[in-house]
Specification:
Shape: globular
Strand content: 15-25%
Structural class: alpha/beta
Largest sheet: 6 strands, mixed
Number of strands: 12
Radius of gyration: 17 Å
Helix content: 25-40%
Mean pLDDT: 89
Oligomer: single chain
Number of helices: 8
Distance between the termini: 34 Å
Low-confidence stretches: 1-11
Length: about 230
């Protein structure tokens, strides 16, 4: 983690699986029930996630999505069908989810996905219990209208809202940079510096480390242009 380890606090087993077709981080998280887990942001490929579940001897009981983009929901329907997993996502991202195959075609990615049946959360119902553990959804609109940070113990699954070494700007429909700035600052104010940020892409790091060291993000929060785009 290159300098971030001393600021990171762990609260239980979380394993990272990186998808290959469109690289993104999926997380497998243990619950209080032996042999059971939940999955955060299953990407386009189910096979590497299934392989990890076999190695860990874990059965998924739920799928939780930080937002509706295809690289965070792509294999959710697979796990729903095979393991009878409910799928949870904020309701404001249903349109984003349903646009997934259009975006795959636009990106010329040779894959298509089936949309799962989703249990839609709203701002009055933002907690999901899996086994004996509680996961809280914190709305952070900006990257997409329904983007959320998922809080599990000391872990924050931030999707494309907050990266450790970059900024999650995509110029895709529904993105609002000004709203994203406010959402990121709300994460900074709401959680302690030793929270573990587990993003949708790239390395995990302590929140305090990110505040001090993510130069691209600091420029974005100050609304400064990237050096690569200065005239």
């Amino acid at each position: 983690m290159s300098g971030a380890a001393d600021t990171v606090r762990e609260d239980g087993p979380v394993w990272t699986v990186t998808n290959g077709i469109f690289p993104s981080n999926c997380y497998v998280c243990s619950t209080d029930v032996s042999g059971e887990c939940f999955i955060v942001d299953p990407g386009l490929e189910a096979a590497p996630i299934e392989a990890a579940l076999d190695d860990l001897q874990l059965t998924p009981r739920a799928v939780l999505c930080t937002h509706g983009h295809f690289d965070h929901t792509g294999s959710a329907a697979h796990f729903q069908k095979k393991h009878s997993c409910p799928v949870y996502m904020h309701g404001r991202d249903l349109k984003t989810l349903h646009s997934s195959n259009f975006l795959l075609m636009a990106f010329r990615i040779p894959a298509r996905m089936e949309s799962p049946e989703v249990n839609l959360l709203d701002d009055d119902d933002l907690e999901v219990r899996v086994g004996g553990v509680l996961v809280r959804f914190h709305p952070v609109p900006g990257h997409t209208p329904g983007s959320c940070v998922l809080e599990y113990g000391a872990s924050l699954f931030t999707g494309d809202t907050l990266y450790s070494r970059a900024v999650g700007l995509s110029k895709l429909p529904g993105e609002d940079p000004d709203l994203l700035r406010r959402s990121i600052l709300s994460v900074w104010d709401r959680f302690p510096d030793d929270a573990v940020v587990r993003p949708g892409h790239g390395e995990s790091a302590g929140l305090g480390w990110i505040k001090r060291n993510n130069a691209a993000l600091l420029r974005f929060l100050r609304a400064e242009p990237s050096p690569l785009h200065q005239s």
